[in-house]
Amino acid sequence: MAPRKKICINLLVLLAFFLGGCASTAVTALEELPEPPVRIFFATDRNHTDSEEPGKMFGSDRGALSYGICAVSVPPDHRIGELESPIFNKDVMEHVVLADVSLHDKMDYFDKMSGFVDRSADKSMLVFVHGYNMTFEKAARRMAQIVEDLDFGGCPVFYSWPSRGKVSGYPADEASVMWSEKNLKGFLEDIVMRSGAESIFLIAHSMGNRALTGAVLELIEKRPCRKNHFKALLLTAPDIDAEVFKRDIAGSLTQSGALITIYTSSRDKALKLSKRIHGYPRVGDVHGIPLIVPGIETIDASNVDTSFLGHSYYNGSRAVLSDMYYILNEELKANERFSLEAVDTTEGRYWRFKK
After folding, report:
1. Which 3 state secondary structure label does DSSP give 237?
2. For residue 248, what are the contacts with CB-CB under 8 A and spacing of at least 6?
3. What is the pTM of this model?
4. What is the pLDDT of residue 228?
5. 33, 149 in Cβ contact below 8 A?
6. CB neighbour list of residue 256: distance below 8 Å, 6 or more residues apart
7. Are 90 and 97 in contact (CB under 8 A)?
8. Residue whose C-alpha is closest to residue 188's, from 175, 172, 204, 207
9. How confident is the model at residue 23 (pLDDT cuts 50, 70, 90)?
10. Cβ(66)–Cβ(44) under 8 Å?
11. Alpha carbon of 308 to those of 81, 235, 268, 276, 330: distances in Å?
12. DSSP per-residue codes, 222-256
């Protein structure tokens, strides 16, 4: 065998050894953390797999609605706006790690949820609906980061619909997010009726805004008395047809009485691509003036630091997280939040982050 070829093979074997070792390394014991893991309630209509590994317990296909509680570690030196992720070896002292998933039947689940709400200071709840290209594990980790960064003291909940969790899954995700809308509507109604939460805050990202806005609209249309529980609705980087939103969705949403906020950006490459795919502008994209709708506060986040794609500023920007903090914790409107400045146009007023 040629020396060069032998060296290459040896290197591949060595690499496989290290990768195999990294993959099988046990997660550092949660007991070693100075703070307990973040406990998060979840509901998902993903298929339940046979895996006992927390991150692989739910797949990317559609399934029956499941309920449970996650334990997600946050490292002691966590930085706001960072989702500390491992390359190979998961370590709760260094990374945000989904460490445990426990399943519960519906009755037990809502009993535990109502107990959590009852112990919280203001009986509040935060419900997060993720967007496209998201696995169950990533959604749980992202929710934990949001809860930690927003210093939210109420009950944290996330809803995970069956996204394929990969870039090429966009068409399938569009179909599944519509399929999940009815399940999400039922889940929100159960929360209102069973959790005991007096203030419910809703956040959706990207394509998840389609399911959330549809579910909220159907719920308040059929059960108008339920709407008083929803205090704020945060639509971050919404991947929704802008004209459809303005004509069919916005007006009814404003009737909910909740403080509705849209976060947009001209630097969102993902939504620009969505516009090219669909042929029409998206709510979260900015070309000139952002979408302005009476009764809804639009925030232009083009000025904030963001990732390469510019699509995840809702959890990656300290400025945006700080702005959301004042909505969730103090229920302040845009004109009361110090980091924003008003921009008046012929189409109305919107807000942007100060430079």
Report:
1. coil
2. none
3. 0.89
4. 84
5. no
6. 216, 220, 227, 230, 233
7. yes
8. 204
9. very low
10. yes
11. 15, 21, 9, 19, 31
12. H-GGGGGGEEEEEEES--SBHHHIIIIIHHHHHTT
Structure tokens at 88: 């190979």
Task: Report which of residues 24 and 248 the model is more confident about.
Answer: 248
Report all structural domains of the chain as residue ranges with CATH numbers, in order of start. 35-353 (3.40.50.1820)
Q: How many CB atoms lie within 10 A of CB 188?
A: 27
- Under a CB-based contact definition with an 8 Å cutoff, are residues 331 and 259 in contact? yes
What is the pLDDT, as a whole number, of residue 304? 87
Q: 210-257, pLDDT tens digit by residue?
A: 999 999 999 998 887 777 889 999 999 999 999 999 999 999 999 888
d(CA 207, CA 12): 40
What amino acid occupies position 309?
A: L
* 38 token code pair: 């973040």
**Could you tell me if 232 and 259 are in contact, meaning their C-beta atoms sit under 8 angstroms apart?**
yes
Question: Which amino acid is residue 22, in one-letter code?
Answer: C
Place of tokens 């739910």: 58
pLDDT confidence band for 54 (50 / 70 / 90): very high
What is the reported pLDDT for 275? Answer: 95
